[in-house]
Specification:
- The longest helix is centred in the N-terminal third of the chain and has 32 residues.
- It contains 17 helices and no strands.
- By secondary structure, it is mainly α.
- It starts with about 25 loop residues before the first helix and ends with a helix.
- The protein folds into two domains: about 190 residues, Growth Hormone, Chain: A, CATH 1.20.1250; about 220 residues, Growth Hormone, Chain: A (Up-down Bundle).
Amino acid sequence: MAAPDDVSPRKPGRAESSSDRPRRMTRTQTLTLISIASVNFSSMICYSILGPFFPNEAVKKGASQTVVGLIFGSYAVCNLIGSLIMGKYIVQIGAKFMLIAGLFVSSVCTITFGLLDRAPAGAAFITLCFIVRSIDALGFAAAMTSSFAMTAKIFPNNVATVLGSLEIFTGLGLILGPPVGGWFYHSFGYEVPFMLLGFLLLIMVPFNIYVLPSIEADPSKDSFLRLLSHVRVVLICFVIFTLSAGLGFIDATLSLFAMKTFNLSSGYVGLIMLGLSLPYCLASPLIGYFTDKYPVSRNGFTVTGGIITAAGFFLLGPAPFLHISSQLWLMIITLGLIGFSLGMTAIPTFPEIIKYAQEQGFEEGLSTLGMVSGLFGAFWSLGMFYGPIVGGLITQNLNFEWGATVQGGMTFLAVSLSYYDERLVLSFTHLLHVGKVS
């Protein structure tokens, strides 16, 4: 199935023509949207099922809490490496093949992970967990990098709208993963949740072989270093990093803090976490549509959303310098605020990087979109690795309140730099000019 003819991204600053106006989606676009939505949902639900029961099972098998954290962290590291590699070589590998192969690898790894309870306790079990989880991360990186690039290629004039809409399915996967995995685990044991969801991913392979279009493209000589030579791109990547670090921090520390402070059960903590996910799912398509319709608003949304996110982290503890006692109602409201503001901040970043890549003279094709997808995935994974580890250390040595405060301060720094990026670009350009003259 050939890709649609109208898949060239609109150049910044070009006057809107009749071809740019909203029109009915083609069959290829509709099928691609269904396909990638299913990939996002199934991949995320398989990714998130471990939380409720795997740490306890791993401890029974001789793994310490630190080792369990490293098993989770290895996923983020391998995802980071995989995103960069897949983003660089997406044209040579083929976007469709990369997505399908990634799905297949993730499905096999999910099923295999469900069999690890049969491995001998101790070093053998721990080693196999690292191996399977790391390979799974590479498959996930391939599938998600390709899906982002294909979305941007097939929906060139509505990137933020489509990505925002797809985040609904990403959020649903993250929301449903823990309760579904926990229910199957308590009802049928360790193996069943991995088997069922692994086979769900496996079924997606033939479906996507039939549905996804093949996109032909030529490899580019451009590199990630050239993409990162633009100050604005670096600042956007810093924003992406702080957002994912914040989510990683919340995942790793909030449940223990809520249980200890408010004497809540794990079930109630899961309900509280919906306060973060649901507003994000609702905000993402709305922000995507608005920023596609008014591209000039992207930086404003990023900065405003980042400031609200930072304020939310200051109130999450709350910060010690605010002299406010922890209240359950305040935490729930704050999580909702953070969830909504994350959508405001994150959704405009991907099309913004594409815009600046085009301004730097990058080719308007799959190769560039692959690099942008890989860069986005790499910095997101870096934040997901940094957030739980550094946030956990701060929480362990100080407390949760200071951990959330540090995260809020880092987010505020990122959006402040993003707000003043034009001045930074001018200053940097002036310094380069002075250096050449001297």
